[in-house]
Amino acid sequence: MRIFDKGHALRSLCPNSEWVHTIDPKTNTETIRWDDTKNTQPTDAEINAEVSRLQTEYENQTYSRSRAAEYPDMGTQLDYIYHNGIDKWKADIVDPVKAKYPKP
Predict the structure, then answer these.
(1) Using an 8 Å Cβ cutoff, are 101 and 79 in contact?
(2) Distance (Å, rounded) from C-alpha 14 to C-alpha 4?
(3) pLDDT tens, 84-93?
(4) Average pLDDT of the chain, as a whole number
(5) How far apart are CA 2 and CA 71, in angstroms?
(6) Quick one: pLDDT at residue 42?
(7) At 21, phi and psi to the nearest 5?
(8) How far is CA 97 from CA 9, 16, 72, in A?
(9) Residue 82 CB neighbours (<10 A)
(10) SS3 content of the chain, % helix, strand, coil (to 5)
(11) Rounded-to-integer distance, Cα 58 and Cα 26, Å
């Protein structure tokens, strides 16, 4: 499971702003130094809400990452389509993976 921090949230909220994000490895304390004179630094509440949003979005896409890992490589799939047709490919390769990892 991926864990998002304030740095991820700042990159999402303020992609063109200048700031430094550090994490003290001993205390796991995050520090943000805002170096941008043109843009306003987001509040802690905005940053924390974005961390939560990013984590939720990541978790909601678990099925998609699982499917991608399960499918054969593209060359194998194209070869299967060539020899067996699209309908057989969907029935034999795509549908079982989609059934195993359904969309929530």
Answers:
(1) no
(2) 15
(3) 999 999 999 9
(4) 94
(5) 22
(6) 94
(7) -120, 125
(8) 32, 39, 10
(9) 9
(10) 60, 10, 35
(11) 27
Task: Return d(Cα 12, Cα 98) in angstroms, integer.
Answer: 30
Which of 62, 63, 72 is CA-nearest to residue 94?
72
Q: Which two tokens stand for residue 53?
A: 């949003």
Chain position carrying tokens 């200048």? 18
User: What tokens were used for 43?
Assistant: 């509040």
Q: Please give the Cα distance from 22 to 28 (Å, whole number).
A: 9
d(CA 102, CA 87): 20
Q: Which two tokens stand for residue 15?
A: 């992609």
First to last CA, the chain: 17
How many other C-beta atoms are found inside a 10 Å radius of the C-beta of residue 81?
15
